[in-house]
Amino acid sequence: MSRPSVLVTGATGKTGRRVADRLNRLGHPVRQASRRGEQPFDWARPQTWSAAQR
User: Fold this and answer.
1) Confidence band (pLDDT; 50, 70, 90) for 28?
2) What is the mean pLDDT of the chain?
3) Is the pLDDT of residue 34 over 90?
4) What's the pTM value of the predicted model, to 2 decimals?
5) Beta strands in the chain (DSSP E)
6) Of the candidates 1, 7, 15, 2, which has an alpha carbon nearest to the alpha carbon of residue 38?
7) What distance in Å separates the CA atoms of residue 39 and residue 33, rounded to the nearest whole number?
8) Closest CA to 53 of 28, 33, 37, 35
9) Average pLDDT over residues 34-42
10) Which has the closest alpha carbon to 41: 14, 16, 9, 6?
11) What whole-number percentage of the chain has pLDDT above 90?
12) Statement: residue 15 has pLDDT above 90
């Protein structure tokens, strides 16, 4: 059975990057999101939320 992926918001920042790296090292599938990253996500812009749910 595959594990659900973990969405790390703010993944391009200092803390988010570390959290995502640690989860990856532990074998968890990680999706990285940030306002200006590959997976755009912004709490203040609901139109970005659906892409993060995939």
Assistant:
1) very high
2) 87
3) no
4) 0.74
5) 6-9, 30-33
6) 7
7) 5
8) 33
9) 80
10) 9
11) 39
12) yes
Q: How far apart are the first and last CA of the chain?
A: 18
CA 41 to chain centre: 9
Burial class (CB in 10 A: 0-12, 13-18, 19+), 47: exposed
Look at the block and give the residue holding tokens 């595959």.
2
Backbone Cα Rg of the chain? 11
The Cα–Cα gap between 23 and 45 comes to 26
Among positive and negative, which fits the CA dihedral 25, 17, 38, 2?
positive
